[in-house]
Amino acid sequence: MSDEILFKPQALILEDPLEFDRLKEVSGHWELQWTRMKPGELEVGISIFDTPRLQYSCFNYNNGIFIQGSPPKGSVAISISQSEDLVSSHSRSVDPYELIILKYGEEVDYIANNTNTIFTLVIEEQYFLQSFFHYFGETLEEMRKQQRLLLEEKYTGMFIAHLEHWLHYFASEQREFDREVY
User: Is 155 within a domain?
Assistant: First the structure.
């Protein structure tokens, strides 16, 4: 692992829906652009927890949004989307159990026409790529050329449940966390 710190340790749990125009304020080190896809009421909920080398987040919304951009420099973002409608990324539909894995400089472009929740884990790039190769015996690039990265349905639920557990834990410990640096 490198000595680079990706994130300032903090917890951001928005209890009330966020106005669409304020999304840029909470994007942190991400280079993101947000575009509304259709008129109507739009409610956005965000929960983010940052450590120096990890970020857990849950982003949910109830109307069509186009999200375009890149994860922070020196990181890899692993996302999974849960939607009641079609979600696409890079001009193709995303399988309900598909992991979208992006490195800095690779552009995310989620389009969801309806209610959607995106769970994301951002991790230090060097550590992730070494761990990925160690586990799969192939690089991320080699694996992506051959196939989409899918979880089995039961593991998708477990992945999301673990992220939700951590986000709820961090939300309940937010006051304590704000005083401490991990």
Answer: yes
CATH for 131: 2.60.120.10
Structure tokens at 92: 């193709």
**R_g of the chain computed on alpha carbons:** 16
Query: Quick one: pLDDT at residue 173?
Result: 67
* pTM over 0.90, yes/no: no
Domain hosting residue 68, numbered range: 10-163
Phi/psi region, residue 28 (left: phi>0; alpha: psi -120 to 50; beta: rest), is left
Q: How many domains does the chain have?
A: 1
Q: Write down the residue that tokens 């840029």 correspond to.
A: 24
Average pLDDT, the chain: 80
10 three-class SS: strand
Is residue 169 included in any domain, yes or no?
Answer: no
Q: DSSP 3-state assignment of 54?
A: strand
Characterise 18 by phi-psi region: left (phi > 0), alpha (psi -120 to 50), beta (else): beta
Most confident of 13-17, 32-36, 119-123: 119-123
